[in-house]
């Protein structure tokens, strides 16, 4: 039976949790993307009515759903909670905007038949908003989990062998640094010793000194 340490068990749990978190964020991201492209397509198809409210809806779709796609990328890929919440709220805000605008914008252009496009656009926009709201909740929740895992030892692979190798490399670098400093210190001390000048006393001087000393006695 293989004996697995507590650290290895924790790494395995964290790796599994990170994989599940990334998968959930990926689903939320593609949920946002689907609604964004559906909203853009809906705005384009309503142009067949050739009315002023259809033009308004097209401009509205380009702005709202273009911003939704951008916010979704920041919220799910960059883990910005505010952007994820903003992406979830944009379609619901847009539904309210369309409802208000349907009372004031209308009329046909090019002499063609027109119907109130904005009024019929409110219902699918509310549906879009409910989907993006769910995606936002999933994104914010998993962003919180992701940030917690990001602070754990071994992130992002949670491989204990890789962590041990990294620790060995760091330890080796520390030893090398100490060894370099020690060698530099020895070299400095050796250089200082070489700079010391010892006066040279020859044999003749020593003999003269001894002779003078004997004469004095």
Query: What characterizes the major β-sheet?
Result: none
- C-alpha end-to-end distance: 96 Å
Proportion of residues in helical segments: over 70%
Strand content: under 5%
DSSP, total strands: 0
Contiguous helical run count: 6
Specify the overall morphology: elongated
**Which structural class do you get from the secondary structure elements?**
mainly alpha
Supply Rg.
39 Å
N-to-C series of helices and strands: HHHHHH
Provide the low-confidence segments as ranges: 108-113
Give the integer mean of the pLDDT values: 79
Defining key terms:
6 helices, single chain, mainly alpha, 217 residues, elongated
How does this structure look, described?
By secondary structure, this protein is mostly helical. Helices cover 79% and strands 0% of the residues. The protein has helices at residues 6-45, 52-77, 81-101, 117-150, 160-195, 203-216. It has a domain at 6-152.
């Amino acid at each position: 039976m293989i004996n697995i340490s507590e650290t290895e068990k924790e790494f395995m749990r964290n790796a599994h949790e990170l994989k599940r978190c990334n998968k959930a964020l990926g689903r939320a991201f593609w949920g946002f993307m689907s609604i964004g492209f559906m909203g853009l397509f809906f705005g384009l198809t309503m142009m067949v009515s050739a009315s002023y409210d259809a033009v308004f809806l097209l401009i509205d779709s380009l702005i709202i759903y273009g911003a939704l796609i951008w916010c979704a990328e920041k919220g799910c890929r960059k883990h910005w909670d505010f952007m994820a919440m903003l992406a979830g709220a944009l379609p619901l805000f847009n539904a309210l905007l369309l409802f208000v605008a349907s009372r004031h914008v209308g009329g046909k252009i090019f002499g063609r038949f027109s119907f109130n496009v904005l009024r019929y656009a409110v219902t699918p926009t509310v549906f879009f908003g409910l989907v993006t709201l769910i995606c936002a909740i999933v994104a914010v929740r998993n962003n919180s989990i992701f940030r917690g895992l990001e602070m754990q030892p071994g992130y992002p692979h949670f491989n204990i062998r890789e962590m041990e190798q990294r620790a060995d490399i760091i330890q080796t670098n520390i030893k090398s640094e100490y060894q370099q400093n020690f060698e530099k210190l020895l070299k400095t001390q050796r250089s200082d010793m070489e700079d010391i000048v010892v006066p040279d006393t020859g044999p003749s001087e020593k003999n003269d000194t001894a002779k003078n000393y004997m004469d004095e006695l």
